[in-house]
Design goal:
The chain is of the alpha/beta class and about 230 residues long. The protein has 5 helices and 7 strands; from the N terminus they run E-H-E-E-E-H-E-H-E-H-H-E. A 7-stranded parallel sheet has the order 3-2-1-4-5-6-7, with helices on both faces. The radius of gyration is 17 Å and the shape is globular.
Length: about 230
């Protein structure tokens, strides 16, 4: 049974990833609050990924870094600290985890790293300056680490469109807004957390053994098509 380290598995996409993997993997979760799920395969460490000491782990076969932010403001209202905060949680937290567990990951079985970008990196969207900047850095990190760690560790990212989580509550705040969001996407839908978790499951599995350095768009057509 492979051991997957998930950062931010208490809610949203991270929670869905735990639910997807828990029956077939040992899952170690780092988050400030504990997941509501209880399972013999789940081990939880309550910590702040940016501030607290990271525990020593004997085995890690995969890392899934889920923390992120949706900080939607006109650039005139974004402060320098906004940019720093978003960069810290999206990028430096991931770097910190990878550096800490790189040695043990190299000794893992079919080791893999998965991070998260956003469709806003490829599709110019108003008010996404801080979010898009930090997620663009993730895409650069995926490319360079994929090359640096080849052929031993595969490194990929998922770039989802809007997903129905607590981060998106303000955007999907009522039925009318949800309907408008569906209409914006050529496939006339947006993502649920399980849609993203399914892709995570694929990317950490042997089924994706030939895939590394990629940013996989889960976009419901919004980047790929103009209809």
């Amino acid at each position: 049974m492979r051991t997957i380290l998930i950062i931010g598995g208490s809610k949203g996409i991270g929670k869905a990833v735990i639910n997807e993997l828990i029956d077939t993997h040992k899952v170690i979760n780092f988050s400030r609050t504990a997941p509501t799920l209880s399972h013999t395969n789940l081990e939880h460490y309550p910590l702040d990924i940016l501030k607290d000491s990271l525990p020593e782990l004997d085995t890690v076969d995969g890392i899934v870094y889920c923390p992120g932010s949706i900080n939607l403001k006109p650039i005139s209202r974004l402060t320098e600290q906004d940019f720093k905060n978003d960069f810290d949680i999206n990028v430096l937290g991931a770097v910190r985890v990878i550096q800490k567990y790189l040695k043990v990951l190299k000794a893992g079985k079919d080791p893999s790293i998965i991070m998260f970008s956003t469709v806003a990196v490829k599709l110019g969207m108003p008010f996404h300056a801080s979010t898009a900047v930090s997620k663009a850095a993730i895409e650069g990190l995926v490319k360079t680490l994929g090359a640096e760690f080849a052929p031993l560790i595969r490194v990929n990212a998922i770039a989802p469109t809007i997903t129905e989580t607590s981060l998106a509550d303000k955007i999907l705040r009522n039925d009318m807004m949800k309907e408008k969001m569906m209409e914006r996407h050529p496939l006339k839908t947006y993502l649920q957390p399980k849609d993203v978790a399914d892709m995570v499951n694929f990317l950490i599995s042997e089924k994706s053994k030939t895939i590394s350095g990629q940013v996989i768009k889960l976009d419901c057509g919004i980047v790929s098509f103009k209809i």
